Fold:
Amino acid sequence: MLATPTDVLRGTLDLLVLKTLTLQPMHGWGISQRIEQVSRGTLDVNQGSLYPALQRLEQKGWIDSEWRTTENNRRARYYKLTGAGKRALGNELASWRRYVASVELILESANALA
Amino acid sequence: MHWLRGLAKRIRALAHPDGAERDLDDEICFHLEQETAKNIALGFAPREARRRALVAFGGIAQTREQHRDVRVVRWFADLIADGRFALRSLRRAPVLAGAAIITLALGIGATTAIYTVVNAVLLRPLPFAHPEQLYMVGENNAERDWHLQDAAPANFLDWKEQVPAFQQMAGYADGGFTATLTGEGEPRIVSFALVTGGFFDLLGVRPELGRVFREEETWHQPVGVAVISDRFWRGTMGGDPHIIGRTIRLDGGNVEVIGVVPADFAFPAADVNVWQSVGWNAADRSAIQFRRAHWIRAIARVRPSIPESAANAQLQSVVSRLQQQYPETNRNMGAEMKPLHEFLTGDAKRPLVVLLGAVGLLLLIACANVGNLLLVHAAGRQRELALRLALGAGRTRLVRQVLTESVVLSLLGGAVGLALGVAGVRVLTAIQPRHMLPVHAFGIDWRVLLFVFVITTASGILFGIAPSL
Structure:
């Protein structure tokens, strides 16, 4: 059976964006490509939904943006992680790991019962 | 890639001309360009490459909308949009809008005018210093059916001197006296009031020019000085800058002007232009006539820490002592005290409340009429609403939009109504009974404005709710 790309869980998009921006400042399209590449296509990020998420993160002060010209001399908006964003990423990662661990735990114990 | 420019233009045309929208459009445009270029590099034909880019992106309109939701508080943006839409649809139905606005304006205007009076008369404190300490003290006589009547000067003086709870006490004659002014152009009638020396101090009134009476001037004879109103000074006396010390002729006698009181002071009546001292003769103090003629209105300022009941108990003990001391005049003479505000507004209270109720009903009727108009109008809009539902508008969203329309309508009505109300207040000020209240004019203050705003909005919701459902 062919694996269909999994919808990005609500709220995890923020986490992915923050994590991606730890590498370097990027524009929206770059972020979407990066997420697609790294997840090898298993995560289907609706590219359009990226922009409201970026706006939300910027309002929280976790990322910052500025307009720059690309190597092709095209104006693009670049996003970068702020100090608050780095700290937030730490928290989000920790809570994500707790979440995964507890789901894992439940699945394990369900297996044991079965 | 000229087709992309076209797309960008179209997106921009949809947008409001504000920076954030434009920025987002630029971003989306850039994104699609990049994605399309990538697809072309992967070997797709330009047309297919662009199609794939659009598919991968998802709904552009949704993105823009979600972006806007994050950016501005959603309901506020909706409200502005609905307000604009409401104005446009009102412009399309000018007769309906005009009729509704006029109907509402009449209702709101009448309510505003009456509420302004109610506010000035019943709700606002009296325009005196610490008005809550002020009490009207008057004589009761069961035999003659008197309640809180004018006092005999001798009794007034005994209360003033013997009731320790009264910090200050002053009297005035509530007679509507007039005198003839001569020597200032045409002879004319001026109304004047007689007051005891402490009158202005008791009420905390400071003169805007010169001075007010001193306590001992109660006993100065003959009465040769007067305090005048701001209106009399600016009008009849031509605003003479040297008015203090100037002599005017009243009823043929010379009177020196010693002070001018501020324009907002209008006590005991709004038309009083001259205040003179009662000018009692100290030798009369023991004369029987001084205790037999009842013509002084007495106001007491009760000491701050003393409750009304305690002050009244002291007053009653003085009264019974006077009854024994002067049986000839005081055998049946009691006394009573009442908060000054209550005394002054007592007569006006019930009619005002009734009037307010009446104009309130009028406003309700206006709302019902406008509601009917809108209901008929709404019936003609079924298609528009059905179309919007089909396009995915939520039911609550439509209700909100129709309500916004009616509130916009009522706010327009309220604005016109406020203007009508201001005019109405002028008329009411001009025709107010002489003793309605010791204020010169019924002012429109923040309380009135708040009231108008609340009734206006409430009206809008009230008459809008039926058509919206």
User: Anything to note?
Assistant: The radius of gyration of chain A is 17 Å. The interface with chain B takes residues 27-29, 32-33, 46-49, 51-52, 55-56, 59, 67, 74-77 of chain A (CB under 8 Å).
